[in-house]
Each structure stands twice: as C-alpha cells, then as structure tokens.
Automatic annotation (TrEMBL):
CDD domains: EGF_CA, LamG. Pfam families: Laminin_G_2. It is a single-pass type I membrane protein. It comes from Sparus aurata (Gilthead sea bream). This is Contactin-associated protein-like 4. Residues 87-271, 277-444, 693-858 form the Laminin G domain. Residues 1172-1191 have a biased composition (Polar residues). Signal peptide: none annotated. It is found in: Membrane. Residues 1162-1191 are annotated as: Disordered. The chain crosses the membrane at residues 1123-1147. Disulfide bonds join 831-858. Residues 446-483, 859-897 form the EGF-like domain.
Length: 1191
C-alpha cells in the first residue's frame, strides 16, 4: 500500500474530468469521490492537485468524464507519495525482540502501543507486556483473530501458583492474508482500547491494572518467566512487523541502532515476501482442470492442497484410477472431509476425516494412492491429524462417466501439488497449463461476513460463502439480524393486548441496547403499575448498639441501571414507600442541626436526600411536617419528638428525579433504649408516555419535522395510525440519492420504500380489510443488511431480500418528515401514535404544540380497544387511553374479566333491595331503562355461575311488590330448572291478556339454546328485592318451595347478574349499596377453581338471549286470589305443562351423557307442578362430584 498525497496530469486535451476509485483490498471496492479534476487545455501545461487528506491505497482507478471532442485522447498521470517512515522487521518463528525499561517510569494514566503486521500464519504471539505484581497483557493472533488476554499469578496460602488468563477482547478476522494490518493498544485509567485497522473495541481495566506499569515488552516470542506462561505455547509469530511504537518510541529503530534497552534475537530488518498464489472458486460454474501424470496409470497418485471455506459441503477434487477402473471423489459434507471411491455405478467405499472444516481457516489435505493402499491426511502440520488408509485394489464392474454428484466448492485453494510437484497457478492463469473457468487466480476472495457481526443483541452469527445467518434463540429478539424485540416496552402495552396481571419481560427501548427485564405488571386497577422489586421490601427492625453509630442498608433492584433509568423516564408517575418506625430514635433532627438519617436516590450512584416519604425534596421534613400535624410542633417529623413510645413517619416518595431509593443510612440507633424499623417498598410506576404519545394531522399540507434519522445498517420504524383517508405519507427522510418512506398507498395497502444505493426497493402489504376505518392500525417496518420487512396489524409480514454484495449503508441528510413530505404533497390526514425509530420514541405531542395544522393527542380509543371490556363492561374514553367501567357488570378488574365469587353457607343470605313503590312512581324517570320500563319488566336476563353438591337447591329468588316472584332452582338431577311463577295478581286494574307472547330462552354451558313460547301474560311488576341464599320471609311461597328456600344454599356462586343488577358484587365490593348480608359470606375464587376431584366433570352454563335443548320440564304457574283469573291461569298452566312435558321427553331422549354423570330424563307421570323432590333433605342427597354451571 502507498500513501498518495498529490496528482499531476498533463497532455489531456481540453478537459479530463476524473474521479478516483480506490480499491483497498483485492476483493472489496470502495468508491472515494474526491472531486472532479479538470485537466490541461493545451498540450504542454501540467496541472497539479494536492489532496486535502492523504489516501492509503493499493490501486487508483481513473474514470474519464469528458474528452476533447476534436483532439486525440491522451493522458499522463504522476502520483506523488508523502514522506513516510518505515521500520520493518522479519520474524521467522524463532525470532524475538525484548524491550526493557531501565528506569522505572512514573505512573501515567495512558500508555499506547501501536504496530503494523502481516503474516500468512493464522496463529502466533504478537506482544507480551509484563508489569509489577505478576500481571501482564498478552496480544496473540489465534485463527486469524487478535485476542487480548490479562494474566495474573494466583497464590494459595503462601505458595505461588501458575498464572491464569482472562480474555478481555477479541477483534478482527482473516488477518493471515499477507496484508498489512494496523494494531493499536491503549491503556487508559479505566479501560483498554484495542483497534485493528479501523475497528475499535473497549474493555474495562481490571482493578489490578488500574495503577499498573509496563516493565518489559516482548515481541514475536514469549519465554516463560517464573509464573508467567505463554498463552500460545510453541506458537511464535511468523511474519513482518512495521513501526513498532511504545508511547511514540520506535522500538524497531532502537533495535537497529543496537540500543542497550532492546535485545533482538534472529530478527532481520527487512520484510520477506513469501510467494503464495491462491485461487478462488467463486460460484457454481468455477472449476480447475489439470492433466494427470503418467505415473497415475499405474495407480500411484499423490495429491496435496490447502483450502479454506465457509460452506459445509463442496467437491474438492476428483480423478479416476484407470488401473482400478474406479472414480475417486474428495469432497466436504457436513464440514467433514469425505473420500468416496465408486465404480460400476455403485459406491464401493466411503470414508470421512476431520471435522469443523468450514471455519474459514486454511486446512491441508494429503491424498496418497499406491498399488496396494490409499491414505488421506487432514491438517498434518496442525497437530490434529485425521489419517485413514484402505487397501487396494478394489473391484469394479465398469468405468463410470465423469460427473459431479456433489455440491460445488466455493472457497480458496493454494499450495496445490501433484506427485510432490507444485502446480504453477500463474501458468494456469496464462492458459499454459490445464483449463479453468470462473476462477480468480492470485487472490483469496474469502470474506468474513460475521466480523464484525451484523447480528445484534447476542445473536449468534453463522455464515456460508455468500451470506450469513443470525440465530436469535434465547436472545429475546427476532428478525434477520436479531434487531427487533419480541417483548413489549411497558406494562401498558401488554394490558392493551388483553393481558392481565403477571410477570412479563419488558424491553424499555425496543430494539435499543438495553436488555429485556422480567417485571411484575399490576393491572388490577384502572392504572397499570410496573412493580420493580429489590432485595429487602419487608419491615426490617434495627436494634440499638453502642458499638456502631449508624446502620446502613443497600438495595439491589431486580432491574439493571439502564432499565431503571428508562422506566422512570418514560413513566408518567413513579412512587416508592419510605417508612420509619421509631422509639427513642430520631430521624432528621431539627432544621438547624445535621440530619441523623438520610438516603441516596436518583440515577446511579444516587444523591443524598434529606427529606422523608410524603414530603417535598430538600425540605428536611416528613409528611406530618408538610401537613402540620407532627407530635411535637417544634419538629417536622414524629420521630424527632424522641418519645419513649412507638410512632412512625411514613409516606410515598413521588419525585421521579430522586427515585429509586438506593441506600439508607440511619444515625440515631446507638443510644440505650433506641429501637427502630424501616421499610423501603418496591418502585412502582404507571403511565407510558411513549405508548399514548400522538399527533392529529388535520390538513394534507401539515407535517412535523425532526432531525435526520440515523439507521445506516439497521432501521426499524413502528407506529399506530388511524385515518378516514385512503392515502397519505406517514414518514419520509431523504438523502442525496438514498431515501426511506412509508405511506398508505390505498385504503388497503401500506408501502415501505427505500434506496441505499442499489436502486429503489419496495415492500408492500395489502390487507383484505380497509385501513381507513378510523380505527387504530399498527405498522412495523424494518430494514437491515439482509432484508427489508413490513407488517401491518396481524397480517402476514412481507419481506424483500437485499441484493447480494450490494450497498448496505443508508445515508440520509435531510430532516425527517412525519405526516407529510418536503414537497407538501400526499400529506396524511388522521392520527399517528407511538412513533418509534430504532427504539427511540419521537415526542409528537411536544412538536405538535408549536406546529400549525397539527394538534397534540388523539381521542377515540374505544373504537379500537372497546372490545377488551368484557362481560357488559363499558369502554370510557380518557385523555391518554381508555378504561373499562364495570358498574353494569357482575365482574370486576381492569377489563371486567375477574369473576366475583363467594362461598355460601346454609345460613348465608344476601338481599338486594330496590326502591319502594312510592319512590317508583315519584322518580320513575331516573330508573335504569334496562330494569324498569313503566315499572314493568317484559324481559329478564339472568346469568350466574354456581358450584354445589346440594340438590335440590334455590339459586336465586326475586320478589315483587305485587306478590309476584321468580325463582331459579336446581332439581335432584343436578340440572338447573327455571320456575317463572306469579302468585295473586292483586291489582284489579292489571291489564291481563292471553295474546302477549313471551320467549323464555335457556342455555346450559356452550350447548345449543332453546326458545319456549308462553302464550300468557308474564309481566313482572315492580321488583321488590333479589335474594341469594336463604330466604328469610317466605310467606308468599308455596309450602314445598318455602321449605326449600328456608334451607338456603351451600356452595359457590359467582358472576350473579339480573339485568344490570349484580347483588353478589354489591355485597362484596360495595357495602354502601342497598344490600343486606346475614350469615357468613366469604369472598373466594371458588367460581374459577378446579374441582377437588381432578376427574370430575366441570361444565359451564349460561342463561341469556340464546337457544338450548332443555333437559327438564319448564313450568309457568300463575296464581291469583281471584277464582276466575285463577281458573283461567290453571287451564293455561295445565296446557303448557303438558306440552312442555312431551317436548322435554323428546329432548331428553336425544340428550348426550353429561360429562361423567348420566342424566336421567323426567317421566311424564312424574311431572309435578314443582318438579323437585318434596323430601328436601340435603344431608341424604347422594354424594356426587361438584359441577360448575354458568346460567
């Protein structure tokens, strides 16, 4: 390589506009557009240009842009190099150079060692730096990579042990290519920097090296000195070094001058250039054909070569043995070397040797065939020899036609010998020997696509000759380069996917560098809390001790420092409980004195805080001081009163700048009689500012602009949008030629387009549903060096592979436009929310506040998220998001999904009382229409779940002021039976008609549902109360039903709902409601728990506006004190019961077995008016497995 500083051109007629393309390796082309160089305008003038920066290059390529249209073409170019000092030394594997510091230098914060090297060997020790206390740094070349080790001696008791080594950093790849590579090692006070060529990696300095000095430097070879053993034994460096500098001191120059501090052994101060011609097999059409030797006709064959490749399979060579009439194949399969000898159309022998031969390193192969033996040897010189021998001759039926049944070889070969005679590949290149095609001679074009690795977040990189693959298993990330996180960024995001409370992995910065963390999400309230635990959240006592003046506690959080800082930053609110319980133990002292106690809080390492929970920062107060209700008005904390009685100062720390609490120091604990206890609760945060950050674009010409997006190698963009428009640009960022854009091209298509220098590419996702429905839709686009992908909602992602070996860097330089373009065309109308680029959320709301035509925020979330509110829960819009109102639901929880259950004893009774009659008439307009319609119900919707072994049993009883009632029962067969009964229509003005048709719809579990038409008036007037469990007053009931009601209900009830009334939920959660509870009532999860018997049949039943097959007769009896009305009703009852009994018998004949229990159908002759057992004896009821029903 040469350093070019200036160009001189002459004899270019008119103008010769030139660009310079610099090829820095034999296979990698990098275009450096310096400038256009105008040439001379006559035949004699010389034009000279000095480059602003020197260029190190192997080749210069001239691209003429314009020639004299009338003159002849001519060019003369002179290139001038800069003054360059080069001191080189050759190391032959037995050479060494040692530099000893005669005077111990004063310690400095920085030491620098730099050098250049080139070699054909893939392993060897480059540098060994020794210091005091038996510590050293060793830089070795191992398998083409540079590794930096820290060595130290171990001592057990007083006996020193051999040193142990620790790898600090690994960098580079394929460095055994006989090209110069620049290495720089910097030791700073806190870290080490290792630079190879232009790539730098940083490693933290071990504590032992923080004040470490170099006493001796060894180059090329390391001898054992006491406890220090070489990292690579018997592996000295073989190659050339140039300009070896230690803190600007040229050690090679000192060695040449025979400086007494430098001793050189077997070092020559020149660089020998070994001749090594390689050939690269680039593709499926590459081959090299060489003539066989005359000795092969007798069966004596000797072939040797070296190869390197990334592929697991490929044919290395093949030849035939005429004497044996067989074909020999030497090939790679599963990264092992295999030898196959075939003849007569069948495989006669198949041997394998070696393993892992696709590691990109040079491997040697020797194949020798004699008259009576054939042998193969792999890596003979590497000490890991695989040797296989087989006897000859082999019998064959016929000669096989030459063909290649294996995959082609892609890789490099060198040092090819036939019968110990080297093959001159230069003659092959000149077509003087053999034949070849698609072969690159005099170079090895292997590229390490995994160094540096494009796999992010710990993804493991593997490669073949033409591509690489990232294994993202167990990394928490996905995609071609493990770029995109598989987890959500907050508990808020998990909640709005329909999840409930639990532990979730949270990736606070998405595709950013912060790793995911397992965090508990509390979703039991309207707010979603992220709860970060630490190592001590319990109340911890502290006892007095005269030996110590302070007690300190440090808190280690489950999340790392980066996660903590990001969680606190992106949350709307954070809090942490801080409590101090005291007895003769002061807390903060008087405002004038120094505080006895304090705590550290805020970003690591934390700052001293002297206020307590419930007070303001820097106030040196507790909550009672802020509220002016401390025990002693002279102090601002209860504990500072120093009373000989227990008291406390407790409260919440809510200022995010001081959270989390990292450590706590308590000072007044040494006095006799002092007692104290403290508690630091977990860090709790709610509200994701990023998730709801939105902007509304109300004009097509409006847009937001942000700084240039930097996503050169990996770019991911995600956001949500809703719009009534069928087209519009979401995002655009331009460069000189490169660009990136995401747009809604039609009402059902999103397009992601970009250009990184290979020409525009597009990725499209077309949905089968319209996207301009003014509902939220999600978009996620990603572009990396391998592919581009686009996903819309949950539709399949579309991908577009990147061109092979094309440009990979996305270079943008303009502003990033959101909701429009720089030309103000194709603007977006609607809302964009939660816009993130490479894990960083853009603050749309803040920018929208100062931008005309754009408004911060975007309402209307219930249209998209309202379906998350379950069980009659109602979606309520909020400024940021939504909530579920469970007031009309029998369930509770953030999504009205948590069942409200209770265990009932036989004496338990819940009575939900409705309004009195005079209140009904006076305030009927204020009553819920779902319950009252002109104080008369024409339809009821009852649902509940139960679990019991009691049969028969009364589940629900509803009474009316007009002595009407409705009862829901279980008969002796454990199947639910509905009784819709009306007794005594006392009102003489009651409008009674037989033409009113009422549908009673009954459903059990998920079975089919059934309708029953009752041609009688069953209007339910003025409900008085709803009763669960035991009925205290049963005078209005029949004797048999009254006896059953007095026994109560034993078991579990859950999710009880009558129209919009939830009596069980009111009794358990809203004691201020008009509900009366008598007897024991225990809230439990019995409604959702599994049965005690794991084999018991458990089913779910429901009664709603759906159909089902009924397994038992349905009875509707209407009774009145009027004889005439009673007679008419009796006739109706008789006809109805008879019809339903016949129907029930038919249905029951088709009813399938009910899980594990056989259900017997009721016989017509047993169809009493109340078809439950008159012998109401729960104790004598048959013992059967409990079943769960939802009605």
């Amino acid at each position: 390589s040469k350093r070019v500083c200036s160009l001189r051109k002459q004899r270019i007629l008119k103008h010769g506009w030139l660009d310079v393309e610099i090829r820095i390796t034999k296979t990698l082309y990098v275009v450096l557009l310096l400038q256009a160089f105008p040439g001379n305008s006559n035949a004699d003038t010389v034009v000279q240009y000095k480059l602003k920066q020197p260029v190190i290059a192997r080749y210069l390529r001239l691209i003429p842009l314009d020639w004299n249209p009338t003159g002849r073409i001519g060019l003369r170019l002179e290139i001038y190099g800069c003054q360059y000092t080069s001191d080189v030394a050759n190391f032959d594997g037995s050479s060494s150079l040692i530099y000893r510091l005669s005077v111990r230098p004063s310690w400095s914060e920085m030491e620098v060692i730099s050098l250049k090297f080139k070699t054909l060997k893939n392993s060897g020790t480059l540098l060994h730096a020794e210091g005091q206390r038996d510590h050293s740094l060793t830089l070795v070349l191992e398998k083409g990579k540079l590794l930096l080790y820290h060595q130290q001696a171990k001592c057990i008791s007083v006996k020193p042990q051999l040193s142990s080594s620790f790898l600090l950093v690994s960098l580079g790849s394929l460095l055994d290519d006989q090209h110069w590579h620049h290495v720089k090692l910097e030791r700073l006070s806190t870290h080490l920097n290792l630079t190879v060529d232009k790539n730098t990696q940083q490693a933290h300095v071990p504590a032992e090296l923080s004040h470490w000095d170099i006493h001796q430097l060894s180059l090329g070879a390391v001898q054992s000195h006491g406890l220090q053993k070489p990292i690579l034994s018997n592996r000295n460096f073989h190659g050339c070094l140039e300009n070896l500098l230690y803190n600007d001191l040229n050690l090679l120059y000192l060695a040449k001058k025979n400086n007494h501090q430098v001793s050189a052994g077997n070092v020559t101060f020149s660089c020998a250039e070994p001749v090594s011609v390689s050939a690269t097999f680039t593709d499926a059409h590459s081959f090299l054909q060489l003539p066989g030797l005359t000795t092969w006709s007798s069966g004596v064959v000797s072939v040797a070569l070296q190869f390197r490749t990334w592929n697991k399979a490929g044919l290395l060579l093949t030849f035939d043995l005429p004497q044996q009439e067989v074909m020999v194949w030497l090939y790679l399969s599963e990264a092992r070397l295999r030898l196959q000898i075939s003849g007569g159309g069948r495989a006669q022998l198949d041997l394998s040797a070696g393993s892992g031969l696709n590691d990109g390193q040079w491997h040697s192969v020797e194949l020798n065939s004699r008259e009576d033996q054939l042998s193969i040897t792999v890596d003979k010189d590497e000490g890991a020899t695989a040797h296989v021998s087989i006897p000859l001759p082999l019998t064959a039926d016929s000669h096989q036609e030459c063909r290649n049944p294996f995959r082609v070889f892609q890789g490099c070969m060198r040092l090819l010998t036939l019968d110990n005679q080297p093959v001159d590949l230069i003659k092959v290149q000149q077509r003087l020997l053999g034949n070849y095609s698609h072969l690159q001679i005099d170079m090895c074009g292997i590229i390490d696509r995994c160094s540096p690795s494009h796999c992010e977040h710990g993804g493991r990189c593997t490669q073949s000759w033409s591509t690489f693959h990232c294994n993202c298993s167990n990394s928490g990330y996905r995609g071609a380069t493990c770029h995109s996180s598989t987890y959500e960024q907050s508990c808020e995001a998990y909640k709005h996917k329909g999840n409930t409370s639990g532990h979730y992995y949270i990736d606070v910065d998405g595709s950013g560098p912060i790793q995911p963390q397992l965090i508990y999400c509390d979703m039991t309230e309207d707010r979603t809390w992220m709860v970060i635990q630490h190592n001590n959240t319990e109340l911890t006592p502290v006892h007095s001790s005269p030996e110590r003046s302070q007690h300190s506690a440090h808190f280690d959080y489950a999340a790392g420092e980066e996660q903590l800082a990001a969680i606190v930053s992106q949350s709307e609110h954070c809090e942490q409980e801080l409590s101090y319980h005291c007895r003769k133990s002061r807390l903060l002292n008087t405002p004038e004195g120094a505080p006895f106690s304090w705590w550290l809080g805020g970003p690591a390492p934390g700052q001293v805080q002297t206020y307590w929970g419930g007070a303001l920062p820097d106030s040196r107060q507790c909550a009672c001081g802020l509220q002016d209700n401390c025990l002693d008005s002279n102090h601002y904390c209860n504990c500072d009163a120093d009373y000989d009685q227990w008291t406390n100062d407790s409260g919440l720390l809510t200022h995010k700048e001081t959270l989390p609490v990292r450590s706590l120091v308590l000072g007044d604990i040494q006095r006799p009689g002092s007692e104290a206890a403290y508690r630091v609760g977990p860090l709790r945060c709610h509200g994701d500012k990023n998730f709801w950050n939105a902007a509304f674009f109300d004009k097509e010409t409006s847009y937001l602009h942000f700084p240039t997006f930097h996503g050169e190698l990996n770019a991911d963009i995600s956001f949500l949008f809703k719009t009534p428009s069928s087209s519009g640009v979401f995002l655009e960022n331009l460069g000189i030629k490169d660009f990136i854009r995401i747009e809604l091209s039609s009402s059902s298509e999103v397009v992601f387009s970009f250009d990184v220098g290979n020409g525009p590419l597009e990725v499209q996702v077309e949905t089968h549903v319209p996207l301009n429905d003014n509902r939220w839709h999600s978009v996620r686009a990603e572009r990396n060096v391998k592919e581009a992908s686009l996903r819309v909602d949950k539709f399949p992602a579309a991908t577009q592979e990147a061109p092979a070996d094309g440009h990979i860097h996305l270079q943008l330089n303009s502003q990033l436009f959101i909701g429009g373009t720089a030309s103000r065309q194709k603007g977006f109308l609607g809302c964009i929310r939660s816009l993130q680029l490479n894990g960083v959320t853009l603050d749309l709301e803040e920018r929208a506040k100062i931008t005309p035509g754009v408004r911060p925020g975007c309402p209307g979330h219930c249209s998209s998220y309202g379906s998350l509110c379950q069980n009659q829960g109602r979606c309520v819009e909020r400024a940021s998001g939504f909530s579920c109102d469970c007031g009309q639901s029998a369930y509770t929880g953030s999504f009205c999904h948590e069942e409200v259950s209770a265990s009932f004893m036989s004496t338990t009774s819940i009575t939900y009382t409705l309004k009195e009659p005079y209140e009904l008439s006076r305030n009927s307009s204020a009553l819920p229409s779902s319950i009252y319609s002109d104080t008369t119900l024409r339809g009821e919707n009852i649902s509940l779940g139960f679990r019991t072994s009691q049969s028969p049993a009364l589940l629900l009883y509803i009474s009316s002021f007009y002595r009407e009632y409705l009862a829901l029962l279980i008969n002796q067969h454990e199947l639910p039976l509905l009784h819709c009964l009306s007794v005594s229509l006392l009102s003489t003005c009651f409008a009674f008609t037989f033409t009113v048709v009422t549908y009673i719809i009954f459903q059990i579990d998920q079975d089919a549902r059934e309708d029953f038409n009752l041609t009688s008036d069953v209007e339910f007037n003025n409900i008085k109360s709803l009763i669960l469990g035991r009925v205290q007053e049963s005078d209005e009931l029949e004797a048999e039903l009254a006896g059953l009601a007095s026994l109560g209900f034993t078991g579990c009830l859950s999710g009880v709902r009558f129209n919009s009334i939830s009596p069980l939920k009111a009794a358990l959660l809203h004691p201020d409601s008009p509900v009366i509870v008598t007897g024991p009532l225990v809230q439990s999860s019995c409604g959702s728990s599994s049965p005690a018997d794991p084999y018991a049949a458990e089913t779910t039943h429901s009664l709603s506006g759906t159909r089902n097959r009924l397994s038992q007769p349905l009875v509707n009896a209407i009774r009145s004190d009027s004889a005439l009305i009673g007679g008419l009703i009796a006739v109706v009852i008789f006809v109805t019961v008879s019809a339903l009994a016949i129907m029930a018998r038919f249905i029951c004949s088709r009813k399938e077995t009910y899980r594990t229990q056989e259900v017997k159908a009721a016989q017509p002759e047993d169809g009493h008016e109340f078809p439950f057992s008159s012998q109401v004896d729960c104790e004598s009821a048959p013992s059967q497995n409990q079943k769960e029903y939802f009605i």
